[in-house]
Amino acid sequence: MIEADVLVVGAGPAGATAALNLAPLRRVVVVHRPAASARIGESLAPAARRLLAAMGLWDDFSAQGHAPCHANRAVWGGPVAFETDFLRDPDGHGWHLDRAGFEVWLVSAAVDRGAAFHAVAGIDSVRRESGRWIVQAGSLVVSAGFVIEAGGRAAPFARRLGIGHRADDRLVCAWIRGAMARPDAGLTFIESEVGGWWYTAPLPGARRVLAYHTDSDLLDAPMGHVPTGVASVLDGCGFSAGGEMAVVPANSRRLAMGVAMVGWRRGMRR
Ligand SMILES: Cc1cc2nc3c(=O)[nH]c(=O)nc-3n(C[C@H](O)[C@H](O)[C@H](O)COP(=O)(O)OP(=O)(O)OC[C@H]3O[C@@H](n4cnc5c(N)ncnc54)[C@H](O)[C@@H]3O)c2cc1C
């Protein structure tokens, strides 16, 4: 059995960040399930600069040469495009990242600071024993004083405690990556239409992502139709779709903590 002060479940941005901040102070163990497929989400907001600086990561991050994101342009509910540029943002511009590479870098920073990472297939069981958490994941057993749930929407630790979730909406995202023949201005572009909204942004390596967001029950209907604003951005950079693609949940979810925690605490007192 591995003894830890803190067990972090999940190694996405939240888990890796928690681990790298705690590792200099406490014994930190991270268990995570490696991603089965590529993930979308490559735009990093300007305010991340402050967080990266506070965590002592800014110099390393800025030396990696991520592509700048200069503005968000949106055509939303009418024909006129609105732009939020980052010229007057006190944090400066944002970035278009290689997300997988960014997450690997955060994990390596946590490892450098002393956190131990273990890839697992999932969380098999969770129990309390003498005031500590005993978490089993395959052949790995960790005893920890604290557990941080950073398992994203899967919430694997909370689920093992019997805590369900509530979905606030039915949003899903269908996305595809592809190549750009010409350089792009470094903008994130969003355009709404009757059934949902489109998103496109450049990626490192002359690539681009195109995504369509809608409710799960409307997904089939309008996929063939790209609205005029998005179409002109794609034409302008000579976008050709090809490569990774997926349809993923993008709805807001939260743990149904109230009822579940009361029931769980009652169970613990027995
Ligand atoms: C369509 C879409 C587009 C997005 N675009 C952006 C964007 O451009 N910019 C942006 O900043 N944010 C974006 N987001 C939001 C962003 O992806 C999330 O805020 C972020 O991933 C949350 O990080 P996290 O570490 O909490 O969870 P996650 O990144 O989901 O990480 C969860 C971790 O838990 C692990 N895990 C899962 N199940 C288990 C299990 N059973 N056992 C052990 N480990 C497990 C996973 O392997 C992973 O390591 C987007 C989200 C969606 C849905």
Q: Could you report the average pLDDT, rounded to the nearest whole number?
A: 92
Strand content: 35-45%
Percent helix: 10-25%
**What ions, cofactors and ligands are bound?**
flavin-adenine dinucleotide
What overall form do the CA principal axes indicate? Answer: globular
- Distance between the terminal alpha carbons, to the nearest Å? 26 Å
Q: How do the SSEs run, as a string of H and E?
A: EHEEHHEEEEHEEEEHEEEEEHEEH
* Architecture per CATH nomenclature, i.e. the level-2 architecture of the largest domain: 2-Layer Sandwich
Structural key phrases:
single chain; 270 residues; alpha+beta; FAD/NAD(P)-binding domain; D-Amino Acid Oxidase, Chain A, domain 2; 2 domains; seven-stranded mixed sheet; six-stranded mixed sheet; 7 helices; 18 strands; 24% helix; 40% strand; globular; binds flavin-adenine dinucleotide
